[in-house]
Write a structure and sequence with these properties.
With 316 residues, this protein is α+β, with helices and mostly antiparallel strands. The strands form 5 sheets. The protein has a 4-stranded antiparallel beta sheet with strand order 8-11-12-13, with no helix packed on it. Helix 1 packs parallel to helix 2 and helix 7 packs across helix 8. It is elongated, with a radius of gyration of 26 Å.
C-alpha cells in the first residue's frame, strides 16, 4: 500500500517563483529569541524583501499589532526607496479582517494605509507557504547569522544593529540564485518601484481622553501629565511609535518622548541645582504619593528648602 501510495496523496513537486522588477515584496513576521539588557526575551521580527532583487530589511518590536504593522510598512518602504504593486502576506489576523487566501478581506486601516503607497496586500492560499519562501529563508538566515553571539542594550540598539547588518552583510553577500548581491540587483529594480508620496505623515492614532482629577490622561498602562487648567476637559491623545502628543482644541498641550530622556535630564538638573537632602526628601515624598509630574516635584523641593536656605513666603 505504501509503494502504491494508496493511503495518501503523493507529495507534489515544489517549484520556485520568479518575479519581475517591482512586481512583489513578501512580508512576514517571526518570533526570535534574543538577549536585551541582560534578559532573554522573545521578540517579533518583521521582514520585507523585494521579490526580484531580494533586498531586505528587518526591525524588531516589543509587540506586533496593526499599529506596528503600519509603522513597519512606513519604515520599510522608506528604507527601500519605493514600493512594489503587490505585497504577499500570510493569513494572520493582524492584517486580515476576514476570510483567507487571495480572496481574504484585508483590515480596513491596513488596506487604506497600503493604498497611500500604491500597495495591494494579497494573502497566499492556505497550505501554500512556499509562496513567500524568500522571506522564510531569510528568517532562517537571520537566526543563524545575525543573532548568534549578539547581545543588545535596549530596543533602539537591537534595531540599530539589525539595520547595520542588513546593509553591510545580508544585502551585500552574493546569492547563488541571483548570481550577484541584492544591493547590486536592486539597482536594476529601483526604476520599476512605485515612488513614495511627497508627504509621509507620522504613523499614529487618535485616542480621545478626559483629564482626571490629578491632571493625568491614561493611555494603556501609562499616565501622562497635562496642565492643571485642563482638569476634567476632553483632550485628544496621539500615540506615535516613539512619542505621545496631547492636543486640546487643536493646540498641543503636552509632548512626551517615548524613552523619557528629557524628563530624566530635567530631574538630574534638579539634583545638581538644589541641596541633596531636600532633593531626596522631595523625591521620597513624590514616590510615596505617586506624583510623577516634574513641575509639581520642583514645588516639593522648594517646600523642603523653605526657611533653611531661602526666605520664601508660605503662599509660593
Amino acid at each position: 500500500m505504501r509503494e502504491l501510495q494508496l493511503r495518501e496523496e503523493p507529495p507534489a513537486r515544489v517549484g520556485h517563483y520568479d518575479f519581475a522588477p517591482g512586481q512583489e515584496m513578501p512580508h512576514d513576521t517571526s518570533p526570535h529569541r534574543l538577549r536585551s539588557g541582560g534578559i532573554l526575551l522573545t521578540a517579533p521580527c518583521a521582514a520585507r524583501i523585494l521579490g526580484f532583487s531580494r533586498l531586505s530589511v528587518i526591525p524588531y518590536y516589543p509587540r506586533f499589532t496593526r499599529f506596528e504593522a503600519q509603522v513597519f510598512l512606513d519604515a520599510a518602504v522608506t528604507f527601500l526607496g519605493g514600493t512594489c504593486a503587490r505585497c504577499t502576506i500570510d493569513n494572520t489576523r493582524i492584517l486580515v479582517a476576514a476570510g483567507s487566501g487571495p480572496g481574504a478581506l484585508i483590515a480596513a486601516q491596513i488596506e487604506q494605509f497600503g493604498a497611500r503607497f500604491g500597495v495591494r496586500f494579497k494573502p497566499h492560499a492556505i497550505g501554500n507557504p512556499d509562496r513567500k519562501a524568500h522571506v522564510e529563508r531569510f528568517f532562517h538566515y537571520v537566526e543563524h547569522h545575525f543573532l548568534p553571539g549578539r547581545s543588545f542594550a535596549d530596543w533602539p540598539d537591537i534595531n540599530v544593529q539589525a539595520r547595520a547588518w542588513c546593509e553591510t552583510v545580508a544585502n551585500q553577500q552574493v546569492k547563488r540564485s541571483l548570481g550577484t548581491a541584492p544591493r547590486a540587483a536592486f539597482e536594476q529594480e529601483r526604476p520599476a518601484l512605485h515612488p513614495l508620496p511627497a508627504h509621509q505623515p507620522a504613523v499614529g492614532v487618535i485616542a480621545p481622553r478626559v483629564v482626571d482629577t490629578e491632571g493625568y490622561v491614561h493611555l494603556e498602562t501609562n499616565r501622562y501629565s497635562v496642565p492643571e487648567r485642563l482638569l476634567g476637559k476632553a483632550v485628544e491623545v496621539y500615540p506615535y511609535f516613539e512619542t505621545v502628543a496631547i492636543y486640546f482644541q487643536g493646540r498641543a498641550v503636552a509632548h512626551a518622548p517615548g524613552r523619557g530622556a528629557a524628563r530624566l535630564k530635567r530631574l538630574l538638573q534638579f539634583q545638581r541645582t538644589y541641596p541633596i537632602r531636600p532633593f531626596l526628601a522631595a523625591v521620597a515624598q513624590a514616590l510615596a504619593d505617586g506624583l510623577y509630574d516634574l513641575t509639581r516635584r520642583a514645588s516639593l523641593i522648594l517646600k523642603q528648602v523653605r526657611g533653611t536656605f531661602f526666605q520664601l513666603p508660605e503662599g509660593d
